[in-house]
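Hello again, I could really use a second opinion on something today. I've been puzzling over a protein and I'd love to understand its fold better. I'm sending you its amino acid sequence along with the backbone structure tokens. It would help a lot if you went through both lines with me. I've dropped the whole record in just underneath, so have a look.
***
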Amino acid sequence: MKLAPYPGRVEGMWLKRSHRGPMDAVGEIRVSPDAGIVGGVDRSRRRQITLIEREVWDRLMRKLGGSADPSARRANLLLTGIRLPNTRGRILRVGEARLAIGGELTPCERMDEVLPGLRSAMRPDWNGGVFAQVLHDAVIRVGDDAEWETS
């Protein structure tokens, strides 16, 4: 297993502790294949952790004339330097963790509550981010490298 030559980075991280509750900024999270994010409310086997790109978020904010914080996306990890579109089936190493990308994270109507037009702007090119499954117990921290595994 080789890693891509230039790693991205975890720039932000949020944990949702209750359904429709706030996204709490955290410095680290523990992940496991059984629980997804330990201490998080979401327990889906398929969507255990969600990821977005800082560059895409900033581009959408400029396009729509907004200034919403990336936590408004309600994703768990904010990455910089990593492209997420069309990565279903790939393995992303984030800190100590290995995450199997399951697919595109489609935006819901709550995105238009953040900024009118945001939901539509997120639909093309996987702009809403991705969801993944956790492959083993690990800790992810803000500032950790994020790298695609290559064969």
In short: The chain has a mean pLDDT of 91. The domain at 8-150 is CATH 2.40.33.20 (M1 Pyruvate Kinase; Domain 3). The chain has one domain: 8-150. The first strand starts at residue 2 and ends at 3.
